[in-house]
Every structure is written in structure tokens, then in C-alpha cells.
Amino acid sequence: METVGYIFFSNLLYSFQMLDYKISYTQAHHHFINIELTINHVDEIMEKELSLQLPAWRPGRYTLQNFAKNIAQFNVFDENDKPLEFSKATKDNWRVKTKGAKTVKVHYTYYANQMDAGGCYVDEKQIYLNFICCCLEVKNRPDSMYRVHIEMPSRYKIACALEQKTEKTQGKDRHFLIATNFFHLIDSPLIASDTLQHKSYKVANSEANFHIWIQGDWKIDFEKAVNEFQKFTQDQIALFKDFPSTDYHFMFQILPYSKYHGVEHCHSTVITLGADYDMDGVARYNDFLGISSHELFHFWNIMRIRPKELMPYDLSKETYFKTGFVAEGLTTYYGDYILCRSGVWSQEYYLKDFETLLKRHFHNNGRLNLSVADSSYDLWLDGYELGIPNRKSSIYVEGAMAAFILDMKLRKSSNHEKSLDTVMVKLWKNYGKKGIGYSLEDYHNVVDEIAGEHIKDYFETCIYSPNALDIHLKEAFDFIGIEKEFIHNENEIERRLGLKTVFQTNGVNNGYFVVGFSPTSEVAKFLTVNDEIIAINSYKLDAINPNTILKKAVKDGKQEIEISFFRDNQLHTITTKYDENQYPNIKLTMKEDASEEQKENLRKWLMPLS
């Protein structure tokens, strides 16, 4: 008798806690999906008003995205399909008057036409959902589980970290995805298609199953990819000595156009890459490896080692924090560094990749205006747009520079007994593993503890203040016997004019639009952002000839050049001097006179952990 009562109570509790979503679509080429949320037992717990909240932003992109703009045909009904009164409390919050209803059914459509690593996209070939974009949270039921049924072709395979179940409903087998709470749901993206490619692998130091899912037109060499994924996965787990998950999913959207975007989740990542016809090329394939290593590192750093301001997430409004350089900068550094030390990348390729990072550092004069900590705080302002000229630093690039400098500093002071690895392990044990958020002060204190001293100069110059970092970078590279050399930029517009430009054409008219400039450029005394350069020395510009035109001017011994450009739809022509070496590129090479100690430091830095 007691057992029967317990089972009845458990089923009732399960029913109370379970919220049901049904997602369907009819004309996939229009990209609209139909969503129905069913909330039961409303009358039994006397909920007079329901608060339904759609997230305004998503973890991994710290800017308001206002997903509610994609919602249409919003209606609410009771169990008898009688309309219920509702109103909007904010741009993404709805309030429903229940009026004694036993069940509340919320119907709406969502426009799923955003193909990136954080969006939703539906067409005739696939269903791709980030539930954070399209699913409402029932704020009255914070402990509720969520059950999702998607009406789709039976031949479709599903890539998703959520538990999958088949249940009898009205005499039919129905496939469900089960989430333990709302965050679990919105942190678990899904791809469903009949063209999904799949391969799983394991590594020596973990019982977890790792999955690689490929959606798109790329016949990947799985044997090669798995071998490389195993190497960087094993190295990352060897670093933290822990991987608290039974499964992890790499979910790739391989697209027919250029794309590079990844979003981290607790048990998966979605990565959009393209173009598909170039995926086997050296550069794009290494992008495939680099972004995968980066996103896996987020499994620890940000998904679990998380700023205290994001514990828990409040997805209804901005949440400001200054440790974005830890979350993204350290991850940017480690993502590529681990590919080298695990043997996936050669030392030569890694140094070339590092040159690109250094180029982004030195070409961004915003690093001299805003510190990486302040740029972290300003993510909500302009962190994901170009912004005004020379205003901000990049938390990815400057954070990676600061991480590299700190790694070398710790290794040098301890003869490699301590490093940035030691800092990451400490952050994991003290914060991530315990589910405790860390502050900027906590990070500073952990670094000081590992260093065995208060390294005030590092934090003041690399983190808290805008700084060129030249001296710190020179010391860091010198420690491992690497020579950093500035060389001429092959892009003559950048080198001679000191301008960052984007080429645009309508098939008849061509122009180079100015998107940035060097403060020391001669040409920047006259030209600025949004000016459209159409001719140099009376030559009409096309996609490839500026280099030839500018080289000819230099070869002919001309001291000045003539530039024709449009500003506010009016034509201007100016004559000005040109520069010798704006926006230089960077070359990293092993010093010819490197000492044995420097060579040994380099070897230890790149030594694999596993």
C-alpha cells in the first residue's frame, strides 16, 4: 500500500514538474516553425498569472540579441481551446491570466532563419535549433523538467546532448527529448537531418564518449579527424585531470559559403564553418581543428570555471563582468597552443598561427585606448561589432597575449615547475569543480599565489591598463629563444596608406571602403572611416590592382600619390605623401644564436602532457 502511494505521488510530482513543448513545421522553405508549450495542473497550484520569459541573450555572446523579434502569431488557450488573456510586461516577457484554467497552452511561430552557431534554422534538409532562441521559460516553475517532441521525418537522425526517450502517447510511439530544467534545455542545441555524418571516439584518460557530427556537403576523413581530436582531447583532460561528463558532442554545420563561428555548451558545441568546397584545404582544415580545440577548452573555462556575475545566468538583461579576457582570452591561447603541444600541429605551423594573432594585436590601436578588463566590461556595448576607430581592445586577442606573457613569466620564475596550467588547475579545483563563481580579484589572487609573489606590474600593464605590451612580449619570446621581427605588409593599401579597407563592387563600380586607420598615417590626415576610395593616381581600382598601382608609384620615385574618393556621395581628390611601413606583419623565427637554455625552455613549453 505504501509503495502504491509513493508511485502515485511520484507520477503526480513528475506531471507537475514536466512542461511539454511540441515543435512542428509545414513549409520548411519559409523557415517558420510552430511551437506549442503545454503547462498542466495550473488550477491545482492556484497560479492566477503565468510569467513566460524568452531569453534576451545567450551565454557565449554577451550582447542583447532580442530573440523575441522572431516570434509571431502568439496566442494562449485553456484546455478547452478557449482564448486566455495575455499581455507583454517587457519586450520578451509575457503575462498570462489563467482564469481558473487547468491547462494553459501557448502557441506561437518562430522564424528560424539564422544560420550561425547560436541561431535556429529550418529548411527542407534539416532542423537546427538552439532552444535558447525560441523556447519560453515558465518563471512560476523554476524546478520544472522540460519534454520536447519535434514532428519531423522519421528518417532524420538527431545530434543532441539531451536524453532521448520514446513514450506511448495516445497509442503511438513518440520521440521525446528530456531536459532536467530550463537551462539544461537551452544549453543543448539540436541538429536533425537524414544526412548527418557521425563518428565517436574515446581517449585513454576518460570514460566519456566524444561524438563528431557533420551536417553539410563535406566528406570528412573521419580516421584522420578522430586521430587528431583524440590528441587534443587527451591533452586537455590531462591538464584538468577531470572530465565530468559521460558524453560530449562536436556538432558541425558545414556551409557552402565562408563562415567561422563556434558556441560552447556544457556537454556540446555547435560550430559553423565554410566554405564546404575548401574544407580539405590546409588553412580551413586547421581552422576546423583550431575552433574545435577552442570550444572543447570552454567545457572547463566558462561553462564551469565561470565568473561569479554569471552564477547563475540572468538571461533577461545585461550582466556585466570584467573577466571576459579569462573566459575568452585564455581559451584563445590554449586552443591553439594545445594543438601544438599535443602533436596535432607542428611547431612551424603553430608559430605561423601565432604570427596571425600578433598581427591582430599590433594592428588594433584600440589596445592603446581601453584595457582588456574594461573591454570585457564593454562587451555589452560594442563587443561584437567593429565600433568606432581605435576605441577598444579584443578580449580574445589581448586576452591571449596576456595569457602567453603570464605563462612565460610563471615558467621563468619557477624553472617550469609552475605555469599557466597551474593557474587553470587551481581555478578548476577551487571554483569550477565546486560550482563557485570567481571574481577578477579571485583570479588575481590565484595568479599571485601560483607566482609566489604579488605580480602587480603584470596586472597593471597587461590587464588593468591600455598598453602596447611590447616589452612584455619581447621578454616572453626571448625566454623561449624566439625572434619577433616586423616585416613589410604585402597589402599595399595597409602598408602605404595606413588604412584598413573592405572592397565592394556592384559589378560596374568598385570601391575600397575605409573601416579603420593608423593614427600615424599620412593619408589618415585626409581620409577617414566610410570614405570610398575609387582611384589612385587616376587608375580605377578593382579587386587586385591597388598593390600594383602603389608599387609602381614607389618604383617611379613619386613622393606623393593622388587619391580619389567619395565621402557622403561627393567626389574628392587629394594629393598626399605615402608611408613606408604602416600595419607591418610579424615574423617569428628561432634565434640563430639561441642558447641551449632557451631551446630547452621552448621544448618544455611545447612538451605534451599526455
What does this structure look like?
This protein is of the alpha+beta class. It has four domains: 2-193, Immunoglobulin-like (Sandwich); 197-281, Zincin-like (2-Layer Sandwich), CATH 3.30.2010; 308-483, Neutral Protease Domain 2 (Neutral Protease, domain 2), CATH 1.10.390.10; 492-577, Pdz3 Domain, CATH 2.30.42.10. Helix content is 31%, strand content 27%. It has 17 helices and 28 strands. It has a seven-stranded mixed β-sheet with strand order 4-7-2-1-11-14-13. Strands 22, 23, 24, 25, 26 and 27 form a six-stranded antiparallel β-sheet that branches. Strands 16-17-18-20-19 form a five-stranded mixed β-sheet, with helices on one face. A hairpin with a 7-residue loop joins strand 16 and strand 17 (209-216). Mean pLDDT is 95; it is low at 1-14.
Q: Strands, helices and their partners?
A:
Layout: H1 2-17, E1 18-24, E2 32-39, E3 49-53, E4 71-77, E5 86-90, E6 93-97, E7 104-111, E8 121-122, E9 126-129, H2 131-134, E10 137-138, E11 145-150, E12 157-160, E13 163-169, E14 172-179, H3 182-186, E15 190-193, E16 197-201, E17 209-216, H4 222-240, E18 247-255, E19 259-264, E20 268-274, H5 282-297, H6 324-341, H7 347-363, H8 372-377, H9 379-382, H10 397-414, H11 420-432, H12 440-451, H13 456-463, H14 470-479, E21 482-487, H15 492-497, E22 499-505, E23 510-517, E24 532-536, E25 539-540, H16 546-555, E26 560-567, E27 570-577, E28 585-590, H17 596-605
